[in-house]
Design goal:
Blueprint: H1 2-61, E1 69-70, H2 73-78, E2 83-85, E3 87-103, E4 108-111, E5 117-122, E6 130-131, E7 136-141, H3 143-161, H4 170-187, H5 192-201, E8 208-211, E9 216-221, E10 228-229, E11 236-239, E12 243-251, E13 263-267, E14 276-287, E15 293-301, E16 312-328, E17 333-334, E18 339-344, E19 349-354, E20 356-361, E21 364-369, E22 376-378, H6 382-395, H7 405-412, E23 417-423, E24 430-439, E25 450-457, E26 468-478, E27 481-488, E28 492-502, E29 505-516
Antiparallel strand pairs: 1-19, 2-22, 3-12, 3-16, 4-11, 5-7, 5-10, 6-9, 7-8, 9-11, 12-15, 13-14, 13-16, 14-15, 16-21, 17-18, 18-19, 20-21, 23-24, 24-27, 25-26, 25-28, 26-27, 28-29
Helix pairs in contact: 3-4
Length: about 525
């Protein structure tokens, strides 16, 4: 018995210890998990920041450096370079868009009655019929109205009978009843002319004539013979179309330039050569999420009813922008992440300059920063100038010329010539063998020279490609022939510069383009 009791106690103590261990492990797990989650989130955030920084650095590195270049006037003429002037002038933007003609809601009139009844005759019986103010539209019979007119006549008769009564308050009460009946008729929309007719004839009219409250065209008609009418029914809608609205659709990027009261013009294919003038009346405070446009309401006069509701029209909004510094739009090279203008300097160099631009106004760009009035910029063949600048930057050959360098270069410049060939005949992506033949001015081969060939391809930011530069040094094979192998990283058009030096002096140079086969 004692043995069983001892075994039972030992088992109980073991179970208790086991439960305590499990509870301890559970508490430790719950405490450690938030810390681990926090560390994991921190590591993920750090990785994302690192990736974003890497992508930004890579995007910036795709932009090749640019340096000023000097190109002879003859070569500038051959490649079609033209220049334009940076100048200040008054500019006005023009936003062209489309819209549709709509009814001017402020010139709408609604016809309703303030009592129940039955329509008897319909005098204006067609939609878009023109009616004038005061013109009869329909007649209506209303039992309530007839009863009120009779009360009015009875009150008037009583008032006349007791007008001379000496009993205090009788005459006043009769007059009050008459005024109350007249006021009820006015509240029901009975005209003063109808009340005057009651006074003069003393006869109740079974049918009341309802007139048009305004001049215009009937755009909605619910008045039909024998129809029961309630006060909430809209029987006619009459639109004055002498002025119309045009709802123009304007992209959200242009909204900041549009002001209330700005002039606008309208053309429509129906009237060739005709232009309508109006003004901006309202800019709606909502942008369509699908088209990214907002409605701009423009008011136009429409005396001849030539603009009809529902017409599709062309709208031009004038936006004066004051005196601005502008350049021709063709003078800007947009490389993807920056905007470059090539400025002609007084020393004969063309300088690439990064500029900050504002809005485009017609054929010009507004300049916010980077240029000054009076400077000359390149307006055509910008890509060729850009390629030349990238090439010179890659070669590191830009050195400001000393005074008189122009004359010296004419007399001491390279006198030899070079010719390039390759194996295979058409260069390709991958390994190639390049050969250069160097000869003097008389065509005699030149041996013992140092010949280098540099292949350069400008950056293409739109495709995520950085500029590529591949230099080769060729070996002297004798008799003016130099040979070497090199690896081209991509197919496409490469700009090639060949330099031949002997005894430290440049004896021949050449620049050309080579088309290599193979993909990017």
């Amino acid at each position: 018995m004692k043995t069983y009791r001892t075994g039972f106690l030992l088992a109980l103590i073991g179970n208790i210890v086991f439960v305590v261990v499990l509870v301890g492990l559970w508490l430790h797990y719950r405490t450690a998990k938030p810390v681990a989650d926090s560390e994991t989130k921190k590591e993920n955030s750090t990785a994302q920041d690192s990736m974003a920084t890497s992508m930004a650095t890579r995007a910036a590195s795709t932009e090749a450096p640019l340096v000023p270049v000097q190109i002879s006037p003859q070569r500038l003429q051959n490649i079609g370079v033209k220049t334009g002037k940076v100048e200040r002038k008054l500019v006005a933007d023009e936003i062209r868009t489309t819209g549709s003609v709509a009814v001017d809601e402020r010139r709408l009139a609604y016809v309703q009655v303030r009592f129940s009844g039955y329509i008897q005759k319909v005098l204006a019986d067609a939609t878009y019929q023109y009616v004038r103010k005061g013109q009869p539209l329909f007649t209506i019979y209303s039992p309530d109205l007839v009863a009120t007119e009779r009360e009015y006549l009875v009150a008037k008769q009583n008032q006349q009978q007791v007008a001379l009564s000496t009993v205090q308050g009788v005459a006043f009460s009769a007059a009050s009843l008459l005024d109350a009946a007249a006021e009820r008729l006015k509240q029901w929309g009975v005209s003063q002319e109808e009340i005057a007719r009651l006074d003069s004839t003393g006869q109740v009219q079974q049918e009341l004539e309802v007139d048009s409250p305004a001049s215009g065209y009937i755009t909605e008609r619910n008045a039909l013979p024998s129809v029961a009418v309630q006060p909430e029914m809209r029987l006619y809608t009459i639109a004055d179309l002498s002025t119309v609205w045009v709802q123009a659709q304007v992209f959200q990027n242009d909204l900041e330039h549009i002001k209330i009261g700005a002039p606008a013009t309208l053309t429509v294919n129906t009237y060739a050569g005709r232009t309508f003038t109006g003004r901006v009346d309202f800019i709606y405070p909502q942008v369509d999420m699908e088209t990214r446009t907002a409605k701009v309401r423009v008011v136009f006069s429409n005396s001849g009813l030539q603009l009809k509701p529902g017409m599709f029209v062309n709208v031009s909004l004038k936006v004066p922008m004051g005196n601005q510094l502008v350049i021709p739009a063709t003078g800007v090279l947009q490389s993807g992440t920056r905007e470059i203008a090539f400025v002609e300097r007084s020393d004969g160099y063309i300088e690439p300059r990064e500029v900050q631009l504002g809005s485009r106004v017609g054929d010009d760009f507004i300049v916010l920063n980077g240029l000054k009035a009076g400077e000359q910029i390149v307006t055509s063949a910008n890509f060729l100038i850009d390629s030349e600048s990238q090439l010179q930057a890659a070669l590191g050959s830009f050195v400001p010329p000393p005074p008189g360098a122009g004359a010296a270069s004419a007399s001491n410049g390279p006198q030899g010539s070079v010719e390039l060939s390759s194996d295979p005949t058409t260069a390709r992506k991958g390994n190639n063998i390049f050969r250069v033949k160097v000869t003097d001015a008389n065509g005699a081969p030149i041996s013992g020279a140092e010949v280098s060939v540099t292949f350069f391809m400008p950056a293409m930011p739109a495709m995520g490609m950085a500029a590529m530069r591949t230099p080769f040094t060729l070996s002297d094979k004798g008799n003016g022939l130099y040979e070497g192998s090199g690896q081209l990283e991509s197919g496409g058009t490469w700009q090639v510069t060949i330099l031949a030096k002997k005894n430290g002096q440049l004896i021949a140079t050449k620049q050309l383009s080579v088309n290599a086969t193979g993909g990017m």
